[in-house]
Amino acid sequence: MKPLEKKHRNDLILIAVLLAAAGIAFGIIQLGKKSGGYAVVVQGGKEVATYPLNEDTSVTINSPTGFNTLVIKDGKADVTDADCPDKLCVNQHSISYDGETIVCLPNKLVVKIVSEAESDVDIIA
Amino acid sequence: MKIKPKSIALLGICAAIAMVLSYIESLIPLSFAVPGIKLGLANIAVIFALYKLGAKEAVAVSLVRIAWMAILFGNVMTLAYSVAGAALSLTAMILLKHWDRFSTVGVSVIGGILHNTGQILVAMLIMETAQIVYYLPILCVSGIAAGVAVGIVSAILVKRVPVSKD
After folding, report:
1. What is the distance between the alpha carbons of residues A82 and A77, in angstroms, rounded to a whole number?
2. Nearest residue on chain B to A114, judged by CA atoms?
3. Taking CB atoms and an 8 Å limit, are A14 and B130 in contact across chains?
4. Alpha-carbon distance A70 to B99, whole Å?
5. Which chain A residue has the Cα nearest residue B105?
6. Which of A1, A48, A77, A99 is the one with CA 20 to 30 A from B33?
7. Do residues A85 and A6 touch, judged by C-beta distance below 8 A?
8. What pLDDT digit, counting tens, does each position of A60-89 carry?
9. What radius of gyration, in Å, describes the C-alpha atoms of chain B?
10. Which of B100, B138, B148 sits opposite A2 (nearest CB)?
């Protein structure tokens, strides 16, 4: 057994390194953000619909497991209602930046923002 | 090796405590902005088992907890996430404890982060999208904070609760 003081010092170094790594990764993601133009609805890995962010709209997306209501308003996309048990998708903030997503795991639904209508399918695949 | 009745009893207690902690945790709503943020309270029981009973015993406690939580409260989907998270997290914690360079705090922090990582990986596979990897840095920070708390509690328990070897 190594002495505890030394281990605690190692703990602190480990935590500092991990925090720094998370901070850098977060920074890179933030810097890479740019306003997106379209909200793409992906269901079970397949794109099912694309909506431009500059047109206010409200759609209900049905799936074998339930429904999610997607609202696009003021250039932002938001899932405002769903029948999934945890409502995590509803609680997530509205999204507008390129690459941002709202995820509903029970309904296998992803709403993601892309800059171009010809979405970045190849990057994902 | 024959399993002693006392070990069975101890493992049962650890697994039961892990399940209770899981349940208590499920009552605390934490996933507001980012899904997947959790305290990982059940890890206290797993770390206790890892330090006091052994690696195999920690795996057993974790598996029993996951299986029963899925049967009682979850479904097949949540089971996939839990198993992936626990597998990564346990492997790392066992190796790190064996390496003997960190206290329970370091072990628990790594366990917490890798639990999140495992779940994100499964989510990426199931959802077939790479975008959710963006959640990982935020989950790392919350995982570190929760891991420190869990590690400190575990350290106290490992030190104060006596478990005789025979």
Report:
1. 15
2. B131
3. no
4. 49
5. A11
6. A48
7. no
8. 998 888 899 999 988 889 999 999 888 888
9. 16
10. B100
Sort strands A101-104 and A57-63 into parallel, antiparallel or unpaired.
Answer: unpaired
Q: What was the pLDDT predicted at A65?
A: 85
Q: Is A51 exposed, middle or buried (0-12, 13-18, 19+ CB in 10 A)?
A: middle
d(CA A112, CA A83): 20
| pLDDT band at residue A124 using 50, 70 and 90 as cut-offs | very low
Contact A52, A63 (CB under 8 A): no
Domains and CATH numbers, chain B: 5-160 (1.10.1760.20)
pLDDT of residue B2: 67
| Distance between CA atoms of residues B136 and A99, nearest Å | 14
Answer yes or no: pTM beyond 0.90.
no
pLDDT class of B33 with cuts at 50, 70, 90: low
